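Recap from last week: sequence in, structure out.
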Amino acid sequence: MLTLDREESKSALHYDDLNSSIKDTFATIDQFELQAVEQIRLMHDEQMYRIAGYKNFSQYCQGELRVYGGYRRINQLLGASKVIVAAGELGSQIKNERQARPLLRLAKEPEKIIAAITLALESNPDPSESDFAAAANQVAPMPRARKQFHQEPLVPKNVITISSPEHPRYGESGVIEADAPNNSQQIVTFADGERLLVNNTDLDVAIVSDSTERTYPKEYTEAITALKEQHKLELERLEQELRIGLQAEVSARAEAQVSEQIQSMHFLYNQQKEQNIQLQQRLDEMEGLRKLSTENQQLHQRIQELEHALIERPSQQWGNTMTQQATIVLNKQVKEALEKTIDLRSLAAEPPKENATECLRLMGMALKNLSVAMNNTQALEAAAIILGTSPTLDAIATRTEQLQLLPVAISQIRQVLAKPGCNWQDFCTVAQHYEVIKQDYWAELTLCETELINSLEIASLPQEQDLNKQVLLE
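Predicted structure tokens:
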């Protein structure tokens, strides 16, 4: 029993939630439908439909809003809006167009609409369409059709049903109590008292009227005139709203284009900025080379001044240190050593073709030659630091010879790697000759070349393991 009670409780809760959701959904649909009236009115009043090529408002409704009921449904919504406005504060009691439909005939008399809504609220706090129809009949009874004793009516009193799904009264039944105004339509009175002009094609039975002239009762003539005026105002408003919308769309497109242009300008600015930075770096490098060239010229000029001073001064001035001839010879050796060093002006005109390591090697050799020629230990230590070895002549000479082999080693290694089908054994055959400068040539290789060497080594591991196993088995 406890289980049944719980299931019934859950079912009741599910029903309540689902029922409330369904009602809220339909209420929201009705609310949005009434809100659309303002936009429709603007399209009508401003005649914005002409922009799309429509000659009148009815063509626009049938062309663009046919799936929503077309011109007939739009007229009903506009009539409901008119009733709500005429009702004033009580207009909020009308929730949808169907409730406003029975009150539309009282639109010219707002006091009667208010009285009808008040009566409906007294009979039902949440009045329905039938409540409003009954209240409207109490406030302003519908005129009854005159009885004709001398002849039978042209159209008998028939009960018909709306069979067209596009008609707002689809599925509802009514009675034909009056003569047809034309040969394609009938005046149908529904249960709520509303009388509508319905096309014969929307009825469930085929009715052909003998009337050849299109005549309307007085109340229809007035209603048609009011509707025409209302449609004209609505067209003007709708045209104005569309014009405003088009202007806003054009402004939005212009803003989007300006934004794209600004982004493009930012991109070009960043590119130009990067290029300027690179140019500035090159200028700084050229300025450094120019300064080194100037210092080199100053050194040559200083040597020449010392030679001239040595020739002009007497030999007694030098004391017992060295003779004038020995000094000249020493200066010549220093000059020859400078001539053997790297020419900074040539570096400024054309950078080394190899790399920075070649530059360091040349500078180290130049400092070594200076240290030998001038017996300068500081130059020897500087050469050792640049070449990365001990500050001894033998160590510097050995290191220089190793660095001289570096371009050849890199060239041969790259030739081996460029061969199709290169393997680890081919690389090892060449690399063994340059094992002493492995760190040097490894630093000069590109990332792709080092990755290729590593992949060759990894690929050779299984073969080496198989060879080791065979050796152990033997």
